[in-house]
Automatic annotation (TrEMBL):
Pfam families in the cross-refs: PRiA4_ORF3
SUPFAM superfamilies per the UniProt record, alphabetical: MM3350-like
Domain Plasmid pRiA4b Orf3-like: 33-208
Highest taxon of the lineage: Bacteria
Originating species: Rhodococcus wratislaviensis NBRC 100605
Protein name per Swiss-Prot or TrEMBL: Plasmid pRiA4b Orf3-like domain-containing protein
Length: 465
């Protein structure tokens, strides 16, 4: 009763449930082994994998593992959905957010959320969406947590059936493709077989092959290039499943290790160019009537510069001495010299670097790899990677050919780039490195690594830019 004697009307107010989204959950204090199962939605018979990962991975670190265990080529956008409604939330790629593709009201980035937040208890689910055009949805379930293993690692345990080909039209398109492939009388049977390639077997799955690719993922994580380097940008465009040899070199390239004797490398890498600029001097060199270096200067270069006296021709004409002509052309390409009123003269940049090995070194690091065409520069990065990793000439050809093919380059007749064409693709960088002595010529090196240690250091530094 109230003070006035009137009865108060009371009602029960229900408790408002507290919604805790996955990203707001606490993270595990320890690092456990998460046993996961992933299955491709709306595909029958099922395509699935069982694999183990550390619980402390962020979702952007889990992404390449999912791509590898499934067998995708990582050539499309992806996203995640965690939690159950009304607590579910979406996690987007950093690129999708930065470029405005994500929903402005739902812009949680995958690199800000850990796996042990979205999957905290066995039985919880995480959705992984890949290629929004084809619409490949995957369901990931946490099957078991093993907190007793001393060093959680990444491994594939089991699976069934091959991953569908990229760009085949999603679950419906894949079902149609399998029907066509299984029906020799179908009018599209031949074209479908040519499109998927002779090696495609829908029922096949090899756990050993998956684990080999997962080991490459570990190499990328532990020995990869500087995140914002140009090499890192190039490698992001290469599906590592298509170029395992390229990525295996990262461990040997030592891109993340402490550098060696940089001052000595600077002196050796810039020796030829600095000598040439000093010889030109402030007055320049008067060229012959035909526009070439005079024979006396050519003879001097052959005598003074390492490796130049190895050229078989005995004439002192520039046209007969390829190393001399190349050094002049590279000095011009690098913006160090120019022709002026019948003379070869230094540019302001060349004058500043003639006596400064450190400044010249920095200029070379910034300009390499060389080439005017995109394919020349991409081949040049692969050349530098093989140099940093200490490969033989034969291995170098194989790696460059594999990398260029994975980047999508083809010859004019539509075939993939072979090991015999790679010299021409990477010629500007290869020739320069051989000219300054950073890399031994292929016909000398053959199947044994013989490149100098300072050349490897030079390549490591270029690849870190």
């Amino acid at each position: 009763m109230t003070a006035s004697g009137k009865r108060r009307h009371l009602s029960v107010v229900p408790d408002v449930p507290v919604i805790v989204r996955p990203s707001e959950r606490p993270r595990r204090r320890d690092v456990a082994s998460y046993h996961l199962r992933i299955e491709l939605d709306d595909v029958s018979p099922a395509i699935w994998r069982q694999f183990v990962v550390p619980s402390n991975l962020r979702l952007h670190e889990l992404h390449p593992i999912v791509q590898t265990v499934m067998g995708w080529q990582d050539s499309h956008l992806h996203s995640w959905v965690g939690g159950e409604p009304p607590a579910s939330e979406r996690y987007e790629m950093r690129e999708s957010i930065d470029e405005g593709f994500a929903d402005e009201d739902d812009e949680l980035c995958e690199d800000a959320v850990r796996l042990d937040q979205v999957l905290a208890e066995p039985g919880e689910l995480l959705s992984y969406q890949y290629d929004f055009g084809d619409g490949w949805d995957h369901t990931i379930v946490l099957e078991r947590i093993d907190a007793d293993e001393p060093a959680p690692t990444v491994a594939c345990l089991a699976g069934a059936r091959a991953c569908p080909p990229e760009d085949c039209g999603g679950p419906g398109g894949y079902a149609d493709l399998l029907t066509v492939l299984a029906t020799p009388s179908h009018p599209g049977h031949h074209d479908a077989g040519a499109w998927v390639g002779p090696g495609f077997a829908p029922e096949s799955f090899g756990v050993d092959a998956v684990n080999r690719n997962l080991r490459i993922e570990i190499v990328i994580r532990d020995h990869g290039p500087v995140t914002d380097s140009k090499l890192a940008e190039l490698l992001r465009r290469i599906p590592h499943q298509a170029a395992p040899h390229v990525f295996s070199l990262l461990e040997h390239a030592r891109l993340t290790e402490r550098r060696g004797d940089i001052p000595a490398a600077q002196e050796l890498a810039t020796l030829h160019l600095r000598w040439f600029l000093q010889r030109i001097g402030s007055d320049g060199i008067t060229l012959t009537q035909a526009g070439y270096l005079p024979p006396a200067v050519v003879a001097e270069m052959r005598q003074e510069l390492p490796g130049f006296d190895d050229w078989p021709a005995t004439s002192n004409r520039e046209t007969d001495q390829r190393p001399v002509h190349l050094l002049r052309e590279y000095a011009k390409t690098l913006g160090l010299v120019r022709k002026y009123k019948g003379k070869l003269v230094r540019t302001n940049l060349g004058t500043a670097m003639a006596d400064n090995a450190t400044q010249m070194w920095r200029h070379l690091l910034d300009r390499l790899p060389l080439g005017t065409e995109q394919i020349e520069r991409e081949a040049g990065y692969l050349v530098l990677l093989t140099l940093a990793a200490g490969t033989s000439s034969d291995e170098r050809r194989d790696v460059i050919a594999e990398g260029l093919a994975a980047l999508g380059w083809q010859t004019s007749d539509g075939t993939i780039v072979g090991r015999e064409e790679v010299f021409w693709m990477g010629r500007p960088t290869i020739t320069f490195l051989e000219l300054i002595g950073a890399m031994v010529e292929g016909w000398v090196q053959r199947d044994q690594p013989m490149d100098p240690e300072w050349g490897r250091l030079f390549a490591q530094m270029v690849l870190s830019m």
